């Protein structure tokens, strides 16, 4: 039994601490907001110029002018603030965001990240990912362990255009959870029913297991 999206988001949410400023990437990472522990207070930041994002709205609460960087409608909070993109990226580049939780196309065993372009495919642009991985204090990746065609995503070396080099600190997939530090890629948790041999078979990157 592998972890589902909610399981992965819960594990990522456990890494958030009281007082953190956090940026959630497009896709699965946005769901992390639903699993933030009730005993801590964090502030969500969006590249399009909002600090203090509220939960996703009910149908009756939708305001088309309130969107996140992924163009999803959101809600505001009593302490929400708005600003231009220059100010938003000043926060990011200035090191004022504690954690970014992002998706990925590839992550290397050294922490290199590729998450913005597949050659030959049309893309809208790189967005704020390059600034995020260069400016935030910790980068957590939530991703499917393999691509839809079975290709590896946790690799020895990224073959797709890089978003950043040696920027990823943690990877959570449906199979397990890894950290990347000075000792390299390390497996620290496995989904129930998943074996170490299965993870090795589906992973190109070299890693060590910290499990008994």
Can you characterise this structure?
The chain has helices at residues 5-13, 85-93, 129-135, 196-201, and strands at 21-24, 43-46, 50-53, 76-82, 99-102, 106-108, 113-114, 138-142, 154-155, 170-172, 176-181, 184-190, 208-209. By secondary structure, it is of the alpha/beta class. It has a single domain, classed as Glutaconate Coenzyme A-transferase (3-Layer(aba) Sandwich). The strands form 2 sheets. Strands 4-3-2-1-5-8-10-11-12-13 form a 10-stranded mixed beta sheet, with helices on both faces. Strands 7-6-9 form a 3-stranded mixed beta sheet, with no helix packed on it. A hairpin with a 4-residue loop joins strand 6 and strand 7 (113-114).
Largest sheet: 10 strands, mixed
Low-pLDDT parts are none
Strand percentage: 25-35%
The ordered string of helix (H) and strand (E) elements is HEEEEHEEEHEEEEEHE
Overall tally of structural domains: 1
In CATH's first tier, which class applies? Alpha Beta
Q: What fraction, in percent, of the residue positions are helical?
A: 10-25%
CATH topology: Glutaconate Coenzyme A-transferase
**Coarse morphology:** globular
How many strands appear in the DSSP assignment? 13
What is the fold's blueprint, element by element?
Elements: H1 5-13, E1 21-24, E2 43-46, E3 50-53, E4 76-82, H2 85-93, E5 99-102, E6 106-108, E7 113-114, H3 129-135, E8 138-142, E9 154-155, E10 170-172, E11 176-181, E12 184-190, H4 196-201, E13 208-209
Parallel strand pairs: 1-2, 1-5, 5-8, 6-9, 8-10, 12-13
Antiparallel strand pairs: 2-3, 3-4, 6-7, 10-11, 11-12
Put the structure in a nutshell:
The chain has 212 residues and is of the alpha/beta class. The chain has helices at 5-13, 85-93, 129-135, 196-201; strands at 21-24, 43-46, 50-53, 76-82, 99-102, 106-108, 113-114, 138-142, 154-155, 170-172, 176-181, 184-190, 208-209.
């Amino acid at each position: 039994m592998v972890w589902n999206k909610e399981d992965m988001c819960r594990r990522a949410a456990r890494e958030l601490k009281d007082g953190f400023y956090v940026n959630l990437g497009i896709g699965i990472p946005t769901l992390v907001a639903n699993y933030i522990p009730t005993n801590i207070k964090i502030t969500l930041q969006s590249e399009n110029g909002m600090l203090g994002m509220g939960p996703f709205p009910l149908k009756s609460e939708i305001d088309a002018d309130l969107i996140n960087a992924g163009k999803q409608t959101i809600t505001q909070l009593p302490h929400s603030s708005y600003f231009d993109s220059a100010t938003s990226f000043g926060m990011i580049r200035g090191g004022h965001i504690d954690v970014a939780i992002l998706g990925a196309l590839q992550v290397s065993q050294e922490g290199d990240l590729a998450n913005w372009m597949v050659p030959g495919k049309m893309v809208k642009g790189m967005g704020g990912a390059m600034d995020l991985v260069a400016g935030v204090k910790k980068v957590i990746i939530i991703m499917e362990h393999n691509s839809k065609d079975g290709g590896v995503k946790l690799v020895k070396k990224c073959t797709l255009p890089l978003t950043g080099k040696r920027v990823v600190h943690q990877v959570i997939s449906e199979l397990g959870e890894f950290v990347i530090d000075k000792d390299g890629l390390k497996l620290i948790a496995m989904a129930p029913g998943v074996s170490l041999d299965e993870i090795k078979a589906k992973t190109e990157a070299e890693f060590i297991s910290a499990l008994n």
